[in-house]
Design brief:
This protein is of the alpha/beta class and 189 residues long. Helices cover 38% and strands 24% of the residues. A hairpin with a 7-residue loop joins strand 2 and strand 3. The longest helix has 14 residues.
């Protein structure tokens, strides 16, 4: 049985490290894993999407609409943008941060209000939390990605120590301690 996870965010938020970490962890757990980066404008501000598929045997790295078991979103608007990819009983783990896309920055559009409530009104299971504050508490606003991984870990039957080990193996040495703290804050929130 293949499981599908989409990681969606904005360029520069660390979604690629998050998908690398998740893929690494799942490989060490003995799964066949396919990680595919499908992104548009990966520079700061553009939408970035990564697919992580794992199971006994995974043939394609692509996730179609209605197939994602979990969507991990670094930002509310990105969560809303990809909600149609979620399975009926799937869950969106979302950072409540708002990052203005270009049309909002230029004044051509307004940032949509009450996105979490609107997704819940559609019957979507939304696990929303302020990852930015937790990342800052861990020592860097850049650790939002690892706070999200901490939250995501609650949906897996994989011991915390294995996640911590994956962080040690995927993150530069000087940032390991801070990222492990970020992970635990996300998991415990």
């Amino acid at each position: 049985m293949t499981k599908n996870i989409m990681i969606v965010g904005v360029g520069g938020q660390g979604s690629l490290l998050a998908s690398k970490l998740l893929g690494h962890l799942l490989l060490t757990e003995g799964y066949d894993v396919k990680v595919s980066e499908v992104h548009g404008m990966s520079q700061r501000g553009g939408s970035v999407v990564t697919y992580v598929r794992f199971g006994e045997k995974v043939y394609s790295p692509i996730i179609d609409k209605g197939e994602a078991d979990l969507i991990v979103s670094f930002e509310k608007l990105e969560a809303a943008r990809y909600v149609e990819y979620l399975k009926e009983d799937g869950t969106i783990v979302v950072n409540t941060q708002e990052i203005d896309p270009m049309p909002v920055i230029t004044g051509a559009a307004q940032y949509p209000q009450d996105l979490v409530e609107k997704m819940r009104a559609l019957g979507v299971k939304v696990d929303a939390m302020d990852c930015l504050s937790l990342a800052a508490e861990a020592g860097s606003a850049k650790a939002v990605n690892i706070v999200l991984m901490g939250r995501l870990s609650k949906y897996f039957d994989i011991p915390v120590e294995k996640w911590q080990q994956a962080i040690e193996e995927c993150v530069p040495k000087k940032f390991v301690e801070m990222n492990q703290k970020a992970f635990l804050l996300g998991r415990g929130a």
